[in-house]
Amino acid sequence: MEKIPEENSCKNIIFNAVLKKNPILVSGMVIAPAVMTADSFSSAVTLSAAFSLITFFTLLISSFVPKKIVYTIRIIMYAFIGALVYVPSAIALEYFIPDGIEQMGIFFPLLIINSLIVSRSESIFFLETKGKMMLDIIFCIIGYDAAVILFGIIREIIGSGAAGEKIIGMPVVFSAFTEPFGGFILLGAMAALLRVLLAFIKKVRQK
Amino acid sequence: MVSGNEKTEASMMTDMLIVLLVLAAVSVYYYGLRAAILIAITSAVCCLTDFICIKLRKKEAQLSDMSALMTGLTLSLMLPASAPYFAAVTAAVFAIAAAKQVFGGRGCEIFNPAAVGFLFVSLCFPENILTYPGYSNTFMSMPLDSLVPSDVMLRPSMMRAFIATGSSPAPLLDILVGKFYGPMGTGVLAVIAVAAVFLVLRRTVSAIALLSEIAVSGTAVFILSGFDPLSVLCFFAGGMTLFGMIFLSCEYSTVPKTKSSRFIYGILVGGITVLLHYYAKAENAVVYAVIIAAPFGIELDKRALSFAGMLNKKGIFSKTNKSVKHMQETLDILEKNNEEK
Asked: Is the ipTM above a cut-off of 0.85?
């Protein structure tokens, strides 16, 4: 039996999914909903919940799509599965967080065809065992959710001077960060900081 | 050793600084000590941020590089004299850190740093940045607190009234000498017009770009305002239009390199300014126009250079062909770019 290379160890998969290849901060995936909707802690949690539900179940069901089917048809099938998963997800989320889902607007149904679904279903499914694939997907989703929630918290503090919708008395509030353009800048700054952190981890590991 | 090109850039910077210092002096005359403090704070913070960013990037800081000072001066003149000091500091830090150093520092900027810094604070603190105090000839007329007390009358700019009514709210003389509610150093039309002539004659500012911007926007406003020349002057003086066209869009690091690109870029900036002014009711339309047109300028340059390269390869135009001066200059830029590669 072929020996599993070190790169594919569980520890590495988790590290890559959460930090080294973080879907939003490193790979730049699913940026638009984050920038447009996650301007506070509560909206970031709503986005994370919607993203997690739709992505996880779509990828789980998509993993049963046979490799024999041609690429074009496979992609259409993923979108179709995403649309099917969207219906129960929307019902569940509208029941638990109706206001949050309403605020997401068009960005909620657009999660059906998010880039993580396409990239992960194509690059990982046919190369890895199902267990490792699921581990990768779960930690990818955790990496995305953690980044989006942190992004929402920072944005709410510096953009609205509030934390969890409570005013915390910031001396200066930069309301531009609640706008999409400010969101892009903040996301860029967070991506740069993550790169600095990764470079530091690499240095420590080498030592 | 200083190359010929660097010498030209230093001379351009000196010209720009002279003009900006004259405008700074006029704003100190109108708004007193507070204007001087704002100008000093913005310029100092720009220089300090530039120095820190250069050190963080592990590059060598050059004393001859006055671009940060130029950005600081330009930015400070775009602010109202009542702007809080923290807003000036924020604008300066954002302009240098996010719009200049992130893109690779001097000469690599895509967007004009002063324009980006101003837009950022006008979005963050609109109530402080888009309301203006009246002018006064007394040196200590404005209080020196960071946030001006509520008893100081702050009003929307003259441009806001012009947008609302469609006709000039101020008489000709006031427009020429900048005696209206607006940013502290961008409304003195007479001085800015002289500065434009000086900079064009010194070849510091691209005549092609500037004239095409003025021609396009001036003609459009003249027609749209029902052939009212006072409205045209009001358009150029208020909303920092002429100031922005000279110091933001035609500044040597922002303007495209080839003449054909400069011409098209000028038309774009002028056209977008008028569109945003009349149809989006934007108060400082030129600042948005400069930012929108900047990426087009880069693309236009690329197209012009590749076109010139193609013609040169086919032997249609060459450097020895004296009849097409414009193409020779474009080929010079192309050669320089190839050498740099």
From this structure: no
